[in-house]
Design a protein that fits this description.
heterodimer; A: 111 residues; Outer Surface Protein A, domain 3; two-stranded antiparallel ribbon; B: 338 residues; alpha+beta; Rossmann fold; 2 domains; nine-stranded mixed sheet; eight-stranded mixed sheet
């Protein structure tokens, strides 16, 4: 099982378009929350990916139809951190998941 | 090697004549023309899950399955290259399991039909393959989740043991039975979710134990383990079978050897528990999307609804010490509300 960390020093480029994007979990991906981590399973490859609790919380928000931007606002409030930092972390995390084929990012609000 | 032959199974599980005999293990009923040694009789399949078993000639099995047409999913060899066990898969048709001297078995893709060609040896001997691979596969194909685990019941609830090879899952379970727990299964545990509960299904009445481990069971407690029915590399025992599924309330991860402890210690699980749980699945070659999803779902339910513990075992600690500590812990934990 590989690990995907929701980092606190994200490096992704943050743009208005990305923050307005929605995320979709593809049909070949399922995830379940465990006590200390969230496990994402790619049914096509049979590979498990472990996500730390912060990442699991981000995934929960994004699959509840939040945009990356509104998810970042909620997290900044929850964790009492600067919004700009959280936006960057959320975008970095989503980019990591997207590169692994675990989510699809829908730009321009398209579904 | 000399084989001690005692075959009490037919007598112990004898029932009045039925047109079809049904025995139960791993959450499914096995239908056969005659009583099947090692399986407790049952009247119907759990949740309608039934596998029909037919004994056939080897030629019939070979004619029904052309090896070259399948995909080899397991190919275990002795050090000299001879086949130890081979499993082939054909999409839509099922699986062929073969181990020299232990028989060959065809399991249909839905797990509802098993055809076996058996070697001319005592049932307990060929059943080692049947109960270790064939029947668990049929159960998994019918939706049960199977884990590489041994288990006992304490106060009507199941405690299971997982761990890598050599950590002593079977030995710990055997000593716990000798100390008063009830035998549930040896080496393969079938589990399913039922509403909010996680249910553990008994395995067949077979326990395979090292002679050296059996000698550590006091004479007065050995009858608790059951009746010896044969010996090869290990002693095969027929324990009193548990017949009903029971809630799984605790999973113990056996960790051996642990340097930081001086005696057997039971501790809360750490961050590695999720991976250990996911990694304790049995039949890794059964990797369809449906099975992978079910495995994740059942593991998630186990993590949420049962108690998970690490058993930290120092170097040199005996299985009996582990069993005594774990039995005391399980007995007290079983008092707690689910």
């Amino acid at each position: 099982m590989s690990t995907v960390q929701a980092a606190t020093n994200g490096s992704a480029r943050v743009s208005r378009a990305l923050l307005a994007a929605h995320v979709r979990v593809p049909d070949h991906v399922v995830y379940r929350n465990f006590v200390r981590e969230t496990v994402v399973l790619n049914l096509d490859t049979g590979r498990y990916h472990g996500i730390n609790p912060t990442g699991g919380r981000i995934l929960d928000l994004l699959t509840a139809d939040e945009t990356l931007g509104t998810a970042a606002e909620a997290l900044a409030e929850e964790y009492q951190r600067p919004l700009a930092d959280v936006e960057r972390d959320v975008c970095t995390f989503c980019e990591d998941l997207r590169e692994r084929g675990l989510i699809e990012v829908k730009l321009n609000g398209s579904r | 090697m000399a084989v001690a032959e005692v075959s009490p199974a037919h007598e112990r599980f004898a029932v009045p004549h039925h047109e079809v005999w049904r025995g139960r293990a791993f959450g499914i009923a096995l239908e056969s023309a005659e009583p099947f040694p090692g399986l407790p009789f049952c009247t119907e399949g759990p949740a309608g899950r039934i596998a029909t078993w037919h004994e056939e000639r080897a030629r019939a099995i070979d004619d029904a399955w052309v090896l070259e047409d399948g995909e080899v999913v397991v190919d275990l060899r002795h050090t000299d290259g001879r086949v130890f066990m081979r499993i082939d898969r054909r999409d839509g048709e099922g699986y062929r399991i073969w181990a020299p001297y232990y028989g060959r078995h065809l399991v249909s893709a839905d797990g509802r039909t098993i055809r076996s060609a058996l070697p001319n040896v005592s049932p307990w001997r060929w059943q080692r393959l049947f109960f270790a691979q064939t029947l668990p596969l049929a159960a998994a194909l019918q939706g049960l989740e199977v884990f590489h685990a041994s288990a006992v019941s304490v106060r009507g609830r199941v405690a299971a043991f997982v761990g890598s090879s050599g950590t002593g899952k079977t030995s710990v379970a055997a000593h716990m039975v000798a100390l008063g727990a009830s035998f549930v299964t040896d080496d393969v545990l079938a589990v399913e979710t039922d509403g909010d509960a996680v249910v553990a299904h008994p395995g067949p009445a077979r326990l395979s134990i090292e002679d050296s481990e059996l000698r550590r069971v006091p004479d007065g407690q050995r009858p608790q383990l059951g009746v010896p029915i044969g010996r090869s590399d290990k002693l095969m025992i027929e324990p009193a079978p548990t017949t009903s599924p029971m809630p799984l309330y605790a999973l113990y991860f056996l960790k051996r050897p642990v340097r930081d402890v001086s005696r057997v210690t039971i501790a809360e699980v750490d961050a590695t528990a999720t991976r250990a749980l996911l990694g304790s699945g049995f039949l890794a070659y059964l990797n369809t999307p449906e099975r992978l999803r079910n495995h994740l779902d059942v593991c998630s339910a186990i993590a949420e609804r049962t108690r998970l513990y690490n058993v930290l075992i120092p170097s040199g600690a005996r299985a009996r010490e582990v069993a005594a500590t774990t039995l005391a812990h399980a007995g007290s934990a079983a008092h707690l509300p689910g």
